[in-house]
Design brief:
Helix content: 40-55%
Radius of gyration: 17 Å
Structural class: alpha/beta
Catalytic activity: D-glyceraldehyde 3-phosphate = dihydroxyacetone phosphate
Number of helices: 12
Number of strands: 8
Strand content: 15-25%
Bound molecules: 1,3-dihydroxyacetonephosphate
CATH class: Alpha Beta
CATH architecture: Alpha-Beta Barrel
Subunit structure: Homodimer.
GO cellular component, one term: cytosol
Oligomer: single chain
Number of domains: 1
Largest sheet: 8 strands, parallel
CATH superfamily: Aldolase class I
Shape: globular
EC number: 5.3.1.1
Family: Belongs to the triosephosphate isomerase family.
Length: 250
């Protein structure tokens, strides 16, 4: 039985002071929630949010991380900096990083390995664009992003990885993949994982869905056999909405 993992990706929203007071509200409203939970503020809001969430049931995520340990990497944030600031989980390979900042599978894989070596949990995002889906390339894209993103990741480290399937056309658009469509892709990801890892490890993998998850559709999505959580953008920016998502009842 896999545990549900509901995570909020705040993207480039909320100043450090807004994020800190938002975290205080969430901490109160999510008290006693039974699922695994996380929020990912912007880098500079992390210390305040981590301080606020200390001792709570909400993990702290980062939205990205450098591929290097330290040194001459202007504008980057290192693993040690994130650790010191209180980060538990690092989101890597988000489609916005891939599309806007040109992050390749090989580059993302460097970060995945580095994050795992530093003891972080990783959420690896994969997903196809509308053109790729309509061009019949969905499986090829999702397979490549999964396999290349996890290159050199051992089976023993795999338990620290969550995959987030985020079809690019469903992000921030109000369009959600149907629960059946999403479940089919999640099952495909599990099949791809079983080609490299044991079937037990593939079966145990937590695979989140992301793309216009809202209080009104979360239950239907989570009811699917292969959907084990959500990576939520827009709806994670409102306390009531994220609370309703995070506390969904099966
Ligand atoms: O990109 C996402 C989470 O990482 C999804 O964003 P939305 O929930 O706003 O569609």
């Amino acid at each position: 039985m896999r545990n549900y993992f509901l995570a909020g990706n705040w993207k480039m929203n909320k100043t450090p002071s807004e994020a800190k007071s938002f975290a205080a509200e969430l901490k109160a409203s999510l008290k006693g929630a039974s699922h695994k939970l996380m929020v990912a503020p912007s880098f500079i809001a992390i210390p305040g949010v981590a301080e606020e969430l200390k001792g709570s049931n909400i993990l702290v995520g980062a939205q990205n991380m450098s591929n290097a340990e330290s040194g001459a990497h202007t504008g980057e944030v290192s693993p040690e900096m994130l650790k010191d600031a209180g980060v538990d989980v690092v989101i890597l390979g988000h489609s916005e990083r891939r599309a806007i900042y040109g992050e390749s599978d090989a580059f993302i894989n460097e970060k995945v390995q580095l994050a795992l070596n530093h003891g972080f949990e990783v959420i690896l995002c994969v997903g196809e664009t509308l053109d790729e889906r309509e061009g019949g390339k969905l499986e090829e894209i999702v397979r490549t992003q999964t396999v290349e993103g996890l290159k050199n990741v051992s089976e023993s480290s795999l338990s620290k990885v969550t995959i987030a399937y985020e079809p690019v056309w469903a992000i921030g658009t109000g369009k959600t993949a149907t629960p059946q469509d999403a479940d089919d892709v999640h099952a495909f990801i599990r099949k791809v994982l079983a080609e490299t890892y044991s079937s037990d490890a593939a079966e145990a993998m937590v695979i989140q869905y992301g793309g216009s998850v809202k209080p009104g559709n979360v239950k239907e999505l989570m009811a699917k056999e292969n959907i084990d959580g959500a990576l939520v953008g827009g709806a994670s920016l409102k306390v009531e909405d994220f609370t309703a998502i995070a506390k969904f009842d099966t």
